[in-house]
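Both lines are given unchanged directly below:

***
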Amino acid sequence: MEAVEAITTRSSPRAVSEPAVSRDDLARVLGAAVRAPDHGKLRPWRFILVEGDDRLKFGELMAQCLKRRDPEATDGAMQAERDKALRAPLIIIVGAATDAEHAKIPEIEQILAAGAATQNIMVALHSLGYGAMWKTGGITYDPWFKEQLGFRATDHLIGFVYTGTTTSSLPQKDVNWQDYMMPFKAG
């Protein structure tokens, strides 16, 4: 699949399942990720792979985080949080280890570089025939949760890329780039 086709046909599936991304394909996907634009060559992106039984541990961590944020969370809400980790056979956690005090590269540019790496992951997965969903939520901003994953509280979680084989697709939305144009205004 050529690049523009991969970009313009990519969409998030409703669900994914086994088989997971092969090791060879995963190496290609992460290789594409680290080719993202990166002002200053700071390489702020960080990746954590969660698969197999580690998904149960990750789900429990997500539930603990929910309980910390909402002590009144019901057993059902806690279980729903745990179950999120089982949405896919592989979760790629993408973070940005930023330097907020960098003399030349603003922190926002470092975050954007990690976001571009995440987009490269999404497009590469699609081009190889896999489905992927990029998820975030309040948990991605929680300092305690970030520290449990090995990040600093001041780092940024870009999101969780749930990936595997597409089992259920959402309908493609027709999007026209012209709908997003703004006129140039100076002064």
User: Anything to note?
Assistant: The chain has one domain: 13-170.
